[in-house]
Amino acid sequence: MRESTRADVLLRLKSIEGHIKGIQKMVEDDRYCVDILKQTAAVKGAIDRLDQAILANHLDTCVTTAIRSDDPAERERVIAELLDLFQGQASGKWGRAARTEHASCH
Prior knowledge:
Number of domains: 1
Radius of gyration: 18 Å
Shape: elongated
CATH topology: Methane Monooxygenase Hydroxylase, Chain G, domain 1
Largest sheet: none
Structural class: mainly alpha
CATH superfamily: Metal-sensitive repressor, helix protomer
Helix content: over 70%
Strand content: under 5%
CATH class: Mainly Alpha
Order of helices and strands: HHH
Number of helices: 3
């Protein structure tokens, strides 16, 4: 992951963590359910934006490198990985593609 993306992602995660703690406090304080639901919706939006930032980084780095590779198996692997990811999100489950460390993916 690019250093600038990593810094952005970490800031977003800390913000989400703080928001979650705020929601926990709302539940402890027996706050109005609709107010809590509004906050959980805000967290979902923040997680969606986090996912978008991570995906953009992945497409700009790891996927681009793999697609430009002379290795057809590597190209097929990243395409299958993305398809699996999006199929998993569509069904409410995360993808099940084999996850391995790749030197080009950082």
